Amino acid sequence: MISNTLQRYLNLRTLFVLLAYVVICVLSYLISYELRFDFSIPDLFVDRMWDTLWWVVFLQVALLFGFGQFDSVLAYFRLQDLFRVFVAVFAASFILMVLWYLYGGEGVPPRGIILTDMLLCFLGLSGFRLILRIRESRSLSDWFAGKDFENVLIVGAGEVGANLCADLMHKTRFQMRPVAFIDDDVSKIGRYVHGVLVAGGVEELAATAKRSAATKAIIAFPSASVSRVREVTRLASDAGLTVETVPSLSDIMNGRAKMTQLRPVELKDLLGRDPVDLNDEGIRSMLEGKRVLVTGAGGSIGQELVAQILKYTPDSLCCIDQAEIAIFNLEQLLSRQITDTDIEFRVLDILNGGAMGGVFDAFQPEVVFHAAAHKHVNLMEANPQEALRNNFLATKQLAELAGEHSVERFILISTDKAINPTSVMGATKRLAELALLAQQKAAGNTTRFMAVRFGNVLGSSGSVIPIFRKQIGLGGPITVTDPEVTRYFMTVEEAAGLVLQSATQCAGGEIFVLDMGEPMKIVDVARQMISLSGLVEGEDIAIEFCGLRPGEKLYEELQHVNESLFETSHPRVLCMASMDTNTIDLDAVVTEFADLIKDGGAQRIKQAMQRWVPEYTPYLGG
User: Fold this and answer.
1) Domain ranges in the chain?
2) Per residue in 15-41, pLDDT tens?
3) 3-state secondary structure of 535
């Protein structure tokens, strides 16, 4: 039976490569003789040429095989491949030269022919590979005549920009022609990268675009600060250019995206902050080889938590969500990933105590991330009983199960709206925090309970970003509650990463607050989105103010009046120190709310919540 290795090489492609290499080596050898003797080879050397041809060519082809030139994808030819071809040809010539000295020139080609053959063979093989590269990249007519490609400026003449330029030049499917680089490194200005001029610094972007007739700018420095991306985007937009960017550096390095997978500059690129440096070793020691359970796994935060948790190779991961389509989408997303972690997907209502108890019995989780919640402020104002059930009662029940099963860590995803709440959603999340604190102090408890608070997540379902995007798509107007309303924003990647970071610092009973930077005016967010859509406020899209709705604040706060913040080992994670160490009587709370959920109206439920959360200011209007 033919071995798998032999079968791998017995195919049409390999035979084609073998034939091409043999023909090139034969022609190089014959031409070397002709050049050496000025196209009049003496009879003595004609016999030697034919006698040595077969084994010299065999030696060269064998060395090409040994240096991986039969395994290479022929259409890809870069400096590394050129170097391997040269080494293979040089090695063959070196062996021939050694044989010449050992045998005094008998039965071996002359030295001049060995050297000439080395050069011709190297040029022939390299030319063959280069022709295939050109053929794969674009047709010859594209090189000399060109097509109606879009002229683009590449902002950033570093390694990423240079590689992007090469790909755009050699791949017709992108339909783009790099016409100039923009870079702040003065040592590069005036020089050429792949034949394209580095025309100037960022401040010269508009003038360069005009001179080169560019219609698009591509930001090719994925590690740049947010402020720099914001400045480049503004300059390009003012110059009438569409703006795209390469994927983030982490996505490129992790293989989640290719450099040429360009995308439009998004709001998170302008409103986010610089990448977070995580203590990967601390997170790995917390998760590696562990059994991890995530509730609300199909939501925005839940999905990102799952994705980041898998990087630290837990032993098993249980993903729970009551929304069937959310779990289905998560399963499809993770099915494309290669992982050693055993992943379970369950469609389940976390308030179903019997079912959740069965999950804890069977799965025996060691770390629990509780992200399931009702989070939409306006909906929960009209449905306080559902907010109580899902946000408070379910959290209390999960915390008790975690304590009974000796879970190591239990992390609640909370919200800045739990601080001096004015909404039902915020008040129920505050009750959930209090339930954790009470469970932490329960007799015999060994589980470390904690909560993590943060603000709005860019692009999450029901947040202002997708709402504004839909309103822009419909032609406007964009509705904003108040010109002065502000909110804190985080990217989902940043929020999930800092949740994991916070969990490593959990001793039990803490409430962590993520550093969310400076708050943004919602009206400014709307204006940024209009600009990124290539539209003009007041001409293409109007902004209308509709007033604050029930439960909404003009601005969010960072801490309760009886709390203070102190730093932790990570600069972007703060810990809450409460001045009030008392806990509420959870049994009394549950008893009162159980009756109100059945028979009470929205106002009675809000008034009851205010008794247990004194800082809550409910909306009791009609």
Assistant:
1) 4-137, 143-265, 289-456+492-517+562-612
2) 777 788 888 888 888 888 888 888 888
3) coil
- Cβ atoms of residues 4 and 78 within 8 Å: no
Helix-helix angle 394-404:424-440, to 10 degrees: 20
Residue 549, number of CB atoms within 10 A of its CB: 12
Q: Is the dihedral of CA 596, 600, 601, 607 positive or negative?
A: negative
d(CA 412, CA 288): 20
Q: How far is CA 30 from CA 25, 35, 120, 126, 574, in A?
A: 9, 9, 10, 18, 77
The predicted model scores a pTM of 0.66
Rounded Cα distance between 372 and 379, Å, is: 16
Fold for domain 143-265?
Rossmann fold (3.40.50)
Q: Which two tokens stand for residue 56?
A: 């010299």
Amino acid at 564: S
Dihedral of CA atoms 357, 363, 368, 374 in degrees, nearest 10, equals: -50
* Tokens encoding 240: 């009438």
| Residues 6+ positions from 317 with CB-CB distance below 8 Å | 291, 292, 293, 294, 306, 309, 310, 341, 342, 343, 344
Q: How many of the other CB atoms lie within 10 Å of CB of 156?
A: 26
Nearest to 351 by CA among 366, 365, 370: 370
- Distance between CA 366 and CA 405 in Å, rounded? 9
Q: Beta partners for 482?
A: none
Domains 143-265 and 289-456+492-517+562-612 share a fold: yes
Indicate the residue type of 606.
K
* Burial of residue 219, with CB atoms counted within 10 A of its CB: 0-12 exposed, 13-18 middle, 19 or more buried: buried
What is the per-residue pLDDT across 333-353, written as a single tens digit (0 to 9) for each? Answer: 888 777 888 999 999 999 998
Residues β-bridged to residue 216: 152, 242
- Fold that domain 289-456+492-517+562-612 belongs to in CATH: Rossmann fold (3.40.50)
pLDDT of residue 202: 86
The DSSP annotation for 593-622 comes to: HHHHHHH--HHHHHHHHHHHSTT-------
CA dist., res. 392 & res. 397, Å (int): 9
Task: Name the least confident of 2-6, 259-263, 547-551.
Answer: 2-6
Residue type, position 339, single letter: T
